[in-house]
C-alpha cells in the first residue's frame, strides 16, 4: 500500500468514529460532562458573587443546585457561614453583605 492510501484509511476511520459519536450524542446515548453546563444542561454549581475582605480572605455566595450558601475562605480554611437557603423562595435579590447583616 502506498502512504496516501494508509493516510486515507486512517482519516476514514476517524471520520466514521466522529459520525458515530455525533449520532450517539444526538440520540442521547452519549453525554459529555466537560462543557455540558455551558450549552445544553443547567449548571449545578455557580458562583453568584465574591466579596474580597482582605488580600487572602473572601466571602463567596455560591448556588449549589437550587440552594444558595455563603462561604468564607482563608488561606488555610473554608467555612460555611449559614445553612443552605432556597434562593427563589427566601432570597429573591440578595448580596453577601445582606447575609452578613442578617447573621449578626
Structure write-up:
- Strands 1, 2, 3, 4 and 5 form a 5-stranded antiparallel beta sheet that branches.
- The termini are far apart.
- The chain contains 3 helices and 5 strands, in the order H-E-E-E-E-E-H-H.
- Helix content is 36%, strand content 28%.
- By secondary structure, it is of the alpha+beta class.
- The model has no long low-confidence stretch (mean pLDDT 78).
Provide keyphrases for this structure:
alpha+beta, single chain, 104 residues
Explain the layout of strands and helices.
Blueprint: H1 3-27, E1 45-52, E2 58-64, E3 67-74, E4 77-80, E5 85-86, H2 87-90, H3 96-103
Antiparallel strand pairs: 1-2, 2-3, 3-4, 3-5
Please tally the β strands and state the result. Answer: 5
Largest sheet: 5 strands, antiparallel
Tally of contiguous helical segments:
3
**How many separate domains make up the residues?**
2
Shape, per Cα inertia axes: elongated
The end-to-end span amounts to 79 Å
Calculate Rg over CA atoms. Answer: 24 Å
Structural class: alpha+beta
The percent range for strand residues is 25-35%
Task: Classify the helix fraction into a percent range.
Answer: 25-40%
Spans of 5+ residues with little confidence (pLDDT < 50)? none
User: Whole-number average pLDDT?
Assistant: 78
Order of helices and strands: HEEEEEHH
